[in-house]
Design goal:
By secondary structure, the protein is α+β, with helices and mostly antiparallel strands. The protein folds into two domains: 6-26 and 157-224, Orthogonal Bundle (Type 1 dockerin domain), CATH 1.10.1330; 31-145, Cyclophilin (Beta Barrel). 27% of the residues lie in helices and 25% in strands. It is built from six helices and nine strands. An eight-stranded antiparallel beta barrel has the order 1-2-8-6-7-4-3-9. Helix 1 (6-19) crosses helix 4 (164-175), helix 1 (6-19) packs across helix 6 (204-215) and helix 4 (164-175) packs antiparallel against helix 6. The two termini are 19 Å apart.
């Protein structure tokens, strides 16, 4: 397959962006690590603005939280900052990570019903196992990203593969400067990965290059040459 002319690609992307219904679940699944004493737990985060803000916070480095028992169903401690809230009335389960009042994080080891924001859930653990790990009294919990994210050029939705949806997302950003690309919640250096033509800004030409690579996997972005 030969290289498709850029003008035709740009026209096609505009048409595609009108037809595409951009999914609100375009974010790749985020996992974090929680260290308590000699134990290391992993947790899968929820898909909401609170969890995304938590990821941004952890991208700056590990977060140490001093946590205390409350109500014989949770450990709670201050974040030292305030995150956006997505409060709903829910009943917790053991392992739930909860944002309370926007500035406290809790680890639930039993059930409780209240209005707060679910940040995520600890992976594969029972109430009794969690109680044993957390123990009685105050603890120090260290929250961090599970692993450093490896970003790919043009992968605007951070799902690990390059598709036409990435081109459409970048075009949406061009048409609406207030629109936030999924990758912006993962790294402040997102322009580096979306500026695939290497001209120091994001434009329709970048969309065209992304689509060109989708159509022809061996195609190299200008920034890769």
């Amino acid at each position: 397959m030969g290289v498709v002319p850029m003008k035709k690609l740009i026209i096609f992307i505009v048409f595609m962006a009108v037809l595409l219904t951009l999914s609100s679940n375009a974010y790749a699944e985020d996992k974090i690590k929680i260290e308590v004493g000699d134990y290391t737990l992993t947790a899968t985060l929820s898909d909401n603005s609170s969890a995304k803000a938590f990821v941004q916070l952890l991208s700056k480095g590990k977060l140490t939280v001093e946590m205390s028992d409350y109500g014989d169903f949770e450990k709670v401690g201050p974040l030292g900052t305030t995150l956006p809230r997505n409060d709903t009335y829910i009943t917790t389960e053991p392992g739930d990570l909860i944002l309370y009042q926007g500035n406290n994080i809790t680890i639930y080891y039993d059930v409780n019903s209240w209005t707060f924001t679910k940040l995520g859930k600890i992976d594969g653990i029972s109430s009794s196992e969690l109680r044993d790990i957390l123990g009685k009294g105050d603890i120090t919990a260290v929250f961090s990203l599970l692993e450093e994210k490896n970003f790919s050029y043009g992968d605007a939705d951070c799902n690990g593969s390059l598709t036409a949806n990435d081109a459409a997302l970048v075009l949406k950003k061009i048409l609406n400067a207030n629109y936030k690309l999924p990758i912006e919640d993962k790294t402040n250096d997102y322009i580096k990965y979306m500026d695939v033509d290497g001209d120091s800004n994001i434009s329709a030409t970048d969309c065209a290059h992304i689509l060109q690579k989708v159509l022809m996997g061996t195609y190299l972005f200008p920034c890769e040459k």
